[in-house]
């Protein structure tokens, strides 16, 4: 029999390195293979399966390969067929864990003549909205729905007992009651979600030995890919079906990025303890990324503590692959993206943390007629309160009698409930909602005076550029102050600033308010189609999470800000002694940068929508001294702040006199008072504002 390594080399010019060859040929009954990004793990996995079949150690029909996603399962099957269809006509089973569990449920239902629960699929969101409204007496927004779904999945996949829920940071009020009602509703309607599918399959395999023996009697060898994304619940299933079988698990705890859904990277680090005779192998050669990118990515991931000791080694000698583009404000990044796409050959990916970051990119690409593929639906941006508030003001500028838009923003405009009722019932007598509100007997003198100012400003909006109008809404109508009060500090403030930044970017491309509103409507519908021009496009827009397992010639990263990546919650947790959330953010960064084959482009700025922001702390570690030498204003220390004018909410105006590599800054305030302050605390709490860009003392 021809050696598998010789076959691959002669037939496909694939030369396995020593670590890859060891993983393909190893005879140990339980093996954990740690595979760094770009190490060829899929080729290794399918080659091992083929080697076992071709040497008579197993049969194709007796091999079960499980993975995290449908796309990964399809990719493995395609790779197996490409390499080995000539030699192995019977293709082994490549399946997602959920598909395998569904098969277990089907078998159980048929054997015992039970009715299998129906998959809830699209009904789940509507059911959760209804339950949330019943419990909390308020509407569940799209953002809150996503958070609730993730929290439910986290609880289920980590198998958290109800009595321990209080130990977890779950944002939804009355979460336990919502969860209990959700479970009860599914039970009454004989429905199941994807987490139930796992739990039901585990229960059947535990309590119905006949089913377990019938299902698992079909297989001798089990392979698990993307093991770092496997949950605790899924590991329980794997450990149960893997008893007495040959087990080959492939993963990389450094690439675990789904902790918010219950991914359990500890399953990898605990593998040797669970299987004392297991062999841990590594494939560490990165065949994808340039040498400098590999070295710099290593420097970042080594910050994490809960990991195996391993190090990516670059196969490439290419350097100078990483570019940093400093900007005055993050709103300037989109034009640079267009230029990069137009001037770059090969595939390009624009990656971001939040899907809404894709909105201005899609708008620009549509305008320029550039084909693209968008992996996610980004419509949720348009249902955010910031966008709905601003569009309400814009609609009122065009139609001063629009009652629905007035209802949305009236309380921001110093109108009482009685004023709103008066406007509703008397609007027909007036030319605008503003005149009606001013004329209401219950409107106070101060409110009437403010409403007159708003009405006068609104009267000028229709003739101004949309970007100017949004600036005026923010400043002259007081929406900026309202936004700060509503958003508070931390991540909410940053997210609100990003949304306003996106709106201003979009508005800057249009000349009238009416045209801008039409463009927003078109963009919302276009993004609802999700895919854009199709998967075969040269340009891909994707969240970092959805880019896992993919690679591109050029990768561009957007919105690289502390508070976005890493999140402020992760930073606060780390300060309180819990490092895991920050380690998760580090892994997300690591996955993002290692998608690039030739070039990585990162934008940096100290401002987003003229609000001061702190650049992602990962940049300092990633770029090191070379980065600080290129761009001191974007360096990790705060020395560039010296001389900047600031406004402190308690102490007034001042000038930063000292600012070094540490967190402390020394500020001289207007009355000669000198104070030492924690720069990060002041910025994150909204106490300190940096004045105009470039203004010095």
Explain what this protein looks like in three dimensions:
Helix 3 crosses helix 4, helix 20 runs antiparallel to helix 21 (445-461) and helix 22 packs antiparallel against helix 24. The strands form six sheets. The chain has a six-stranded parallel beta sheet with strand order 3-2-6-7-1-8. The protein has a six-stranded parallel beta sheet with strand order 11-16-15-12-14-13, covered by helices on one side. It has a five-stranded antiparallel beta sheet with strand order 22-21-20-19-23. The protein is of the alpha/beta class. The chain starts with a helix and ends in a 7-residue tail after the last strand. The protein folds into five domains: 4-109 and 198-285, Rossmann fold (3-Layer(aba) Sandwich); 118-189; 313-376 and 530-628, P-loop containing nucleotide triphosphate hydrolases (Rossmann fold); 382-518, PCRA, domain 4 (Orthogonal Bundle), CATH 1.10.486; 639-691, Thrombin, subunit H (Beta Barrel), CATH 2.40.10. It contains 29 helices and 23 strands.
Which features characterize this protein?
about 700 residues; alpha/beta; Rossmann fold; 5 domains; 6-stranded parallel sheet; 23 strands; about 45% helix
Short description:
The chain is of the alpha/beta class. The protein is built from 29 helices and 23 strands.
């Amino acid at each position: 029999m021809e050696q598998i390594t010789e076959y691959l080399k002669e037939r496909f010019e694939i030369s396995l390195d020593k670590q890859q060859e060891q993983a393909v040929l190893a005879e140990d009954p339980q093996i954990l293979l740690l595979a760094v990004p770009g190490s060829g793990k899929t080729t290794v996995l399918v080659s091992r399966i083929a080697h076992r079949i071709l040497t008579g150690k197993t049969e194709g029909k007796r091999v079960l390969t499980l993975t995290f996603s449908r796309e990964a399962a399809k990719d493995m099957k395609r790779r197996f067929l490409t390499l080995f269809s000539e030699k192995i006509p019977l293709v082994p089973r490549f399946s997602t864990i959920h598909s395998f569990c569904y098969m277990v449920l089907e078998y159980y239902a048929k054997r015992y003549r039970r009715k299998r629960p129906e998959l809830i699929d699209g009904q789940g969101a509507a059911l959760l909205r209804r339950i949330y409204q019943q419990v909390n007496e308020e509407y569940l927004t799209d953002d809150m729905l996503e958070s609730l779904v993730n929290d439910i999945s986290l609880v289920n996949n980590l198998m958290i007992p109800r009595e321990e829920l209080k130990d977890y940071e779950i944002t939804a009020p009355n979460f336990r009651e919502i969860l209990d009602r959700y479970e009860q509703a599914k039970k009454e309607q004989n429905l199941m979600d994807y987490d139930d599918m796992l739990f039901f399959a585990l229960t059947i395999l535990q309590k119905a030995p006949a089913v377990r023996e019938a299902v698992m009697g079909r297989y001798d060898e089990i392979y698990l890919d993307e093991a770092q994304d496997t949950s605790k619940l899924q590991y329980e299933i794997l450990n149960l079906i893997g008893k007495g079988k040959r087990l080959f698990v492939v993963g990389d705890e450094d690439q675990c990025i789904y902790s918010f859904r219950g991914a359990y990277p500890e399953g990898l680090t605990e593998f040797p303890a669970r299987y004392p005779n297991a062999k841990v192998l590594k494939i560490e050669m990165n065949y994808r990324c340039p040498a400098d990118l590999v070295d710099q990515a290593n420097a970042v991931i080594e910050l994490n503590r809960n990991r195996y000791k391993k190090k990516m080694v670059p196969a490439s000698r290419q350097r100078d692959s990483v570019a940093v583009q400093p900007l005055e404000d993050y709103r300037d990044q989109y034009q640079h993206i267009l230029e990069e796409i137009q001037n770059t050959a090969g595939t390009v990916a624009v990656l971001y943390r939040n899907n809404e970051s894709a909105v201005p990119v899609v708008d620009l690409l549509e305008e320029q007629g550039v084909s693209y593929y968008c992996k996610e639906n980004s419509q949720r941006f348009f249902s955010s309160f910031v966008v709905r508030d601003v569009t309400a003001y814009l609609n009122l500028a065009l139609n001063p009698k629009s009652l629905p838009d007035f209802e949305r923003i009236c309380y921001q405009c110093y109108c009482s409930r009685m004023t709103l009722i008066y406007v509703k019932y008397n609007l027909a007598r007036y030319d605008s909602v503003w005149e009606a509100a001013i004329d209401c007997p219950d409107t106070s003198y101060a409110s009437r005076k403010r409403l007159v100012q708003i009405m006068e400003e609104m009267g000028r909006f229709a003739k101004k550029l949309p970007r100017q109008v949004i600036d005026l809404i923010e400043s002259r109508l007081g929406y900026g102050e309202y936004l700060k009060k509503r958003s508070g500090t931390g991540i909410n403030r940053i997210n609100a600033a990003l949304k306003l930044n996106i709106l201003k970017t979009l508005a800057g491309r249009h000349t009238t308010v009416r045209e801008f509103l039409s463009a927003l409507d078109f963009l919302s519908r276009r993004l609802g189609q999700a895919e854009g021009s199709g998967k075969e496009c040269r340009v891909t827009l994707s969240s970092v999470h959805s880019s896992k397992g993919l690679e591109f010639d050029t990768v561009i990263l957007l919105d690289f800000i502390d508070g976005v990546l890493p999140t402020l919650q992760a930073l606060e947790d780390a300060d309180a002694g819990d490092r895991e959330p920050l380690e998760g953010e580090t892994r997300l960064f690591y996955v993002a940068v290692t998608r690039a084959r030739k070039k990585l482009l990162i934008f940096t700025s100290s401002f987003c929508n003229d609000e001061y922001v702190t650049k992602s702390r990962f940049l300092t570690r990633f770029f090191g001294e070379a980065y600080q030498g290129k761009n001191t204003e974007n360096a990790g220390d705060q020395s560039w702040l010296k001389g900047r004018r600031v406004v402190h909410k308690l102490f007034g105006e001042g000038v930063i006199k000292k600012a070094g590599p540490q967190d402390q800054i020394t500020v001289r305030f207007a009355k000669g008072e000198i104070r030492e302050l924690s720069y990060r605390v002041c910025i994150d709490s909204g106490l300190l504002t940096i004045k105009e860009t470039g203004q010095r003392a």
